[in-house]
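S2.1 Query sequence (Major facilitator superfamily (MFS) profile domain-containing protein)
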Amino acid sequence: MELTSSSHTSLAGNSSVIGFTIGEGVITVLAYFARDWLRLKWVISGYFALVLPYLYFVPESPYWLFTKKKYNQLEECLRKIAKINGHSDNEWYPYYNELIHNRRLSMLSRKYASRSSKDIIFHHLPRLSLCALIGCVTMLLYIKISYGLGAMSDAVSPYWNIIIGAIVEAIGYILASISITTRLGRKYSFIVFSLFTCICVLIIPFVMKSYPIVTIVISQIGKLTISGVVLVTWIYVPEIFPTSMRGVSNGVFVFTGRIGAIIAPVIDVALGEKYIKITFYIYSVLTIIQIIAVYSLPETRNRSFHTDEDEENDLDGQNLFVLGKTENSNEPINRPTPIILQSNEVNVRHTQF
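Output structure tokens follow.
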């Protein structure tokens, strides 16, 4: 997401997760023709290998280069952006030069450089804990609804179940991508989709024995809503952390998400059919806890990525210096990303960090 601008993070996140559903469909077709897990494994490995050459051409994140003070690489990256957008160096370089020689930013850079990784992580530990909770519960519900419920019913072929689920998932991603650009924003879109997921999870235990088709319909609705939650989290979580912590936060989010994905089927097998209904009630409670936790987080719609400088202003209440202009830190701040990073129509005369 750092490879695009703050005005296009939603599009970048949406493209990646919708691509995931296409991959689900492709793998299902391959599994249908392979019919052998070892043969399928080699096919998947070759399929994944097609992506590796692309990684060679992926540029480094301008946000990361600026945070790490790799100014030569940053200048080269910005020059390439300006060239692609049809702008000369005279239009953006003076602002870039003023930015990297800003005394206040230099002072903050020295301050953060003196802080140990341990101090930085402990400072963000409460929010990292929420990030871990979101990742674990979201993937727990996703695996439970997407694959656990599909395996419980013989009414539909497992291959068709995955294909239909992928289509429903794509619809959920599209609906969520529209929702996060409305007044609901990231936070309230997450809350709304989580609430609908919770309702579906609560209904399923009452119908899954007597009405298998109804169970499939409700589970697919639940998959639609939990897919919306997944999309929002992939966009929302990176936006609530500064650049220096974004990699760690994503790592925590993915790690705990994988834990949730692993324990979901293990819990089902351990409990058996006799006590399987208990899991639905427990997952509903976890969803409510997650919603309450997310309610405490800030909204990030129409805001650039949270930076270390924003964090500093939150902590010390000092005035902000933005290219010769001061802002009172007690006032609401909506500092945009440099225009050169915001859109294809670069207008560096209004560039701010």
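The radius of gyration is 23 Å. Residues 195 and 288 are 8 Å apart (CA to CA).
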